[in-house]
Amino acid sequence: MSQNMDVDKSMEQLNEEADIGADYLEDLLDIVDYEGDIEMGVRNHRPTVQIVADDDTDIKHLIGHEGEVVDALQRLTRLAVQQRTGERSHLILDVDGFLGRKRKKLRQTALDAIDEAGETGEPVDLDPMNSFERKIVHDMVREEGLKSRSHGEEPHRFVTIYPRDGAAEVLTGDSQQDEGVTDVDSAPYADEDKTLEDEGR
After folding, report:
1. Is residue 86 left, alpha or beta, with left meaning phi > 0 and alpha meaning psi from -120 to 50?
2. Which pLDDT tens digit goes with each residue over 52-68?
3. Is this prediction's pTM over 0.90?
4. H or E element: which one contains 92?
5. What is the rounded CA–CA span in Å between residue 98 and residue 22?
6. pLDDT tens, 71-119?
7. SS3 per-residue string spanning 138-167
8. Which strand ranges, in their side-by-side order, compose the sheet holding 124-125?
């Protein structure tokens, strides 16, 4: 699936997806009797819906351990949008600021791995991540001027961060799954957006 899929959609289409997603989630909150405000819009040319907590206790149940529940809700919301529009959606769902906290934690994980790669001169493998998490790491590595690459198959796909002198190892690897290679001069990777279940699912 092309990473530019949402770029081809008009703002009207993206806002419609956000509106459909918001309606779906509002109905869900009514069913489970949770209190929360729903905000929607378009960010980075992607429809986004946020559930903002009125009462932290209830809404936190929609996050789950390591975001497992919000990931599942995002998938269901995307499917609800697809059912209405007939097109796949890359809608992003956030609950009570979870994605912001997640990004901050992942950026620190990436920085620690970058430091380790620099100190040891060896590639550093991170724990398996979903594509949303991998994208954050790839972006961070690119900002630091290093290279990274995704390996493996879902749900065990992971990122390797390479030291500055490890460029040749990245570029001459025999794997066909090179989509995760990133640096300040290269084209963006493509692997983190190729399925309906990507980016934070």
Report:
1. left
2. 987 667 888 899 888 88
3. no
4. strand 92-95
5. 17
6. 999 999 999 999 999 999 999 999 999 999 999 999 999 999 999 999 9
7. HHHHHHCCCEEEEECCCCCCEEEEECHHHH
8. 124-125, 158-162, 147-151
How far is residue 34 from each of residues 18, 77, 79, 197, measured CA to CA in Å?
20, 17, 22, 26
Cα–Cα distance between 148 and 67 in angstroms, integer?
24
Q: Which amino acid is at 32?
A: V
Q: Which amino acid is at 58?
A: D
CATH class of 102-193: alpha beta
What pLDDT sits at residue 193? Answer: 42
* Alpha-helical regions (H) of 33-183: 56-59, 68-85, 98-120, 131-143, 167-171
- Domain limits, the chain: 6-96, 102-193
The number of residues in the chain equals 201
Report d(CA 92, CA 8) in Å as an integer: 17
**Which architecture characterizes domain 6-96 according to CATH?**
2-Layer Sandwich (3.30)
List CB contacts of 62: < 8 A, sequence separation 6 or more: 34, 51, 69, 70, 73, 95, 96
Spatial separation of the C-alpha atoms in residues 198 and 143, rounded to whole Å: 22
